[in-house]
């Protein structure tokens, strides 16, 4: 049985593991279906502190993994399929029916971007296709880009990209946006932004190295339009990887794990959460890493005999972020 079991191997998971092991706790990571998390799809990172030169997401996660291993963390390639949080020790079962028991648990399973599922999307992911304007907007300075979506996230992404891009076209399949009115007004007043109503993207074309063009169709008459573009940002939402925890842990209406606003504690004492699985607002690697550190410190304090204090804090704060 481990002191701390961590589910997920992105920035939150690996950072939690590093801090947990450094505190002298027996620590194990279950990597999940994609070791390294969403970050391994990022071709270059220029905004992760400590790296003066750009680093690929894959290289960054490999360094985190190596650091965790040097600290004595056990890393297991498995996918958790079921959990039992009804009593301590907590039990998690992998897809090969291996059972993992732990005194505390840190959930860092992240959230997956929802994609369009159209030709060219996978091929040019990281080469003009992105789901994060804050991550990749800088690479499109003085370029022409498109944002797909109609909610708050899409409008925020479009407005952010106007800081870099020459032009931004917002592609929306309906005739009205779902974003807040104040955000819509700001978007409509920006001279760099064009809104294409009643339109959807059906294909993404490129030259083999980068995106060059979108194929669009009208949702009203199916008329096809080709539009030259340098990049496309898909902003149709994210899905937190929490399905196996629902019914055992408290989650919000969108499936994100609810944590105490004072720390990383969840609705069950001894279980903590970090990163995109509980924080839909930022989705930045460095934020997730910081939250992983917090979760490890919380788990260590819990193991040191502060269980009653954490339980009382959770009750008083009602698990609010």
Q: Can you offer a commentary on this structure?
A:
The two termini are 30 Å apart. 41% of the residues are buried. The strands form 4 sheets. Strands 1, 2, 3, 4, 5, 6 and 17 form a 7-stranded mixed β-sheet that branches. The chain has helices spanning 11-22, 57-70, 133-136, 152-161, 181-189, 285-317; strands spanning 2-7, 27-30, 74-76, 80-84, 90-94, 99-107, 111-113, 129-130, 144-148, 167-171, 193-196, 199-206, 211-218, 224-228, 231-234, 238-240, 271-273. It is α/β, with parallel strands linked by helices and 321 residues long. The model has no long low-confidence stretch (mean pLDDT 92). A hairpin with a 5-residue loop joins strand 13 (211-218) and strand 14.
List low-pLDDT spans: none
Instruction: Give the CA-CA distance, first to last residue.
Output: 30 Å
Compressed to H and E, one letter per element, the order equals EHEHEEEEEEHEHEHEEEEEEEH
The helix fraction, in percent, is: 25-40%
Number of E-state strands? 17
Helix/strand/pairing category: alpha/beta
What's the number of helices?
6
Mean pLDDT: 92
Per the principal axes of the C-alpha atoms, what is the gross shape? elongated
How large, in whole angstroms, is the Cα Rg? 21 Å
- Beta-sheet strand percentage? 25-35%
Main β sheet profile: 7 strands, mixed
